[in-house]
């Protein structure tokens, strides 16, 4: 599949199918992740399901629009530069099929059994698998093809955030239990009877917070995936930011400064590719730009500069210079059109409207030994919204599912009711198995499609 002719009929059809896959994946993501935002407000009858999911979808949209794109490209850059932006766009087909096929299959598998699984883990595992498959394909060592520093940074955020959710929500519930004496806060829903007064308002507010923060974080992930897809379909059109013309004039200057840094500090055997790219960039002018080739060269140079910035043998001045140069070059290729943000929000919202019931039931009745109360739901969502929003604006992808699930478990412990060990074992097994399963599947699929 690496030998598809650029813009051939078969290649275009395959990439259009991939575009459909990314939309389906984000739709299924709504089954899992966005359902956490509406679980409490629906389970406690504070809002009717249709009203809740429409409101949640709207706040997802606002979160996507205001959330930036740092998380989007933090994930995208897990891919090696030659896969991330090949000059002719051909490897986009096996890369995208491996990515979405793997993540979609695992998401559907866990959703079918009502297990709150992380779509973030699915995507990250698939991206790592593609990087490993690329290393095997080109007979490189794993250290040469996989940006382990970026992977560990992301995995630390994914691992620590649920613990913070567990402790934070449990602690908040404990404080609320001792300060607020309204008995309705601590009673599970009674049939279809809705919550009243300020309690209902509180639950709607926390639902709003989780929905907005989810959009600001998970929405960014889908933005990155959609950008990968449309760049694969039309690399000449979407490879560079629409307003990049003025920035292109500075690329040659920045590349000239980057050249000695990349030349001096060997970075795991990838120096030759980066030096070849930086040489081409020094000769760049607005009149000679080929969008897809320029994008590929920029990502090779960014990979080289990241390696310099992480090199402990480099001076502090050189590392700082490498980071600054990387930040100046990236805006040319790291952007997202408004319609990509809109599409991301719509896919997440529609998925929530259709597939939320299984996860709502799990969160409401199967995490603890007792049913969820308004105080527990509000505590978990309030802490979760804060953690997710903070991560979104610092460029770290976290799992809405794991944070909210851990938060509910924390409130169950804080109330003394205990947790349902059987369900938590199932969730933990899904959490533990997701990365190795998706890494293996994506690596094998990418290698097979390219062989």
From TrEMBL:
Localization in the cell? Cell membrane; Membrane
Entry superkingdom: Bacteria
Question: What GO molecular function annotations does the UniProt record carry, in alphabetical order?
Answer: phosphate transmembrane transporter activity; symporter activity
UniProt membrane topology term: Multi-pass membrane protein
Q: What is its main location?
A: membrane
What does the UniProt keyword field contain? Answer: Cell membrane, Membrane, Phosphate transport, Symport, Transmembrane, Transmembrane helix, Transport
Task: Return the Pfam families for the record.
Answer: PHO4
The record's catalysed reaction(s) read: phosphate(in) + H(+)(in) = phosphate(out) + H(+)(out)
What GO CC annotations are associated with the protein?
Answer: plasma membrane
Per the record's keyword annotation, is Kinase included, yes or no?
no
* GO term, biological process aspect, one: phosphate ion transmembrane transport
| Family the entry assigns | Belongs to the inorganic phosphate transporter (PiT) (TC 2.A.20) family. Pit subfamily.
Name listed for the protein in its UniProt record:
Phosphate transporter
**Provenance organism:** Komagataeibacter rhaeticus
């Amino acid at each position: 599949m690496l030998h598809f002719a650029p813009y051939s009929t078969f290649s275009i059809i395959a990439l259009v199918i991939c575009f459909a896959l990314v939309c389906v994946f984000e739709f299924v993501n709504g089954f899992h992740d966005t359902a956490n935002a509406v679980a409490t407000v629906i389970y406690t009858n504070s809002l009717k399901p249709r009203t809740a999911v429409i409101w949640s979808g709207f706040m997802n949209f606002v979160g996507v629009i205001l959330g930036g794109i740092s998380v989007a490209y933090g994930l995208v850059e897990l891919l090696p530069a030659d896969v991330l932006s090949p000059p002719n766009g051909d490897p986009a087909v096996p890369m995208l099929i491996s990515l979405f096929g793997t993540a979609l299959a695992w998401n559907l598998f866990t959703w079918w059994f009502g297990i709150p699984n992380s779509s973030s883990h699915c995507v990250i595992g698939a991206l790592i698998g593609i990087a490993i498959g690329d290393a095997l394909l080109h007979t490189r060592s794993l250290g040469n093809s996989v940006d382990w520093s970026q992977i560990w940074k992301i995995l630390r955020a994914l691992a620590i955030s649920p613990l913070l959710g567990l402790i934070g929500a449990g602690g908040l519930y404990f404080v609320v239990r001792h300060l607020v004496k309204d008995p309705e806060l601590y009673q599970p829903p009674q049939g279809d009877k809705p919550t009243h007064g300020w309690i209902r308002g509180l639950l709607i507010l926390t639902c709003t917070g989780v929905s907005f923060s989810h959009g600001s974080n998970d929405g960014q992930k889908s933005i990155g995936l959609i950008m990968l897809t449309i760049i694969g379909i039309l690399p000449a059109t979407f490879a560079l930011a629409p307003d990049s013309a003025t920035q292109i004039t500075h690329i040659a200057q920045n590349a000239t400064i980057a050249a000695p840094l990349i030349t001096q500090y060997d970075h795991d055997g990838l120096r030759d590719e980066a030096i070849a790219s930086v040489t081409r960039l020094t000769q760049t002018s607005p009149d000679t730009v080929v969008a897809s080739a320029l994008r590929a060269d920029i990502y090779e140079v960014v990979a080289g500069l990241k390696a310099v910035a992480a090199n402990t043998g480099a001076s502090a001045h050189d590392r700082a210079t490498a980071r600054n140069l990387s930040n100046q070059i990236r805006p040319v290729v790291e952007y997202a059109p408004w319609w990509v943000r809109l599409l991301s929000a719509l896919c997440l919202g529609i998925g929530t409207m259709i597939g939320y019931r299984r996860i709502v039931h799990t969160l409401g009745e199967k995490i603890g030994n007792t049913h969820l109360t308004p105080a527990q739901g509000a505590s978990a969502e309030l802490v979760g919204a804060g953690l997710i929003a903070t991560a979104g604006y610092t460029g770290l992808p976290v799992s809405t599912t794991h944070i909210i699930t851990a938060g509910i478990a924390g409130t169950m412990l804080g109330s003394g009711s205990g947790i349902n060990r059987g369900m938590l074992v199932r969730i933990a097994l899904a959490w533990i198995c997701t990365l190795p399963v998706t890494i293996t599947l994506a690596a094998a699929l990418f290698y097979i499609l390219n062989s």
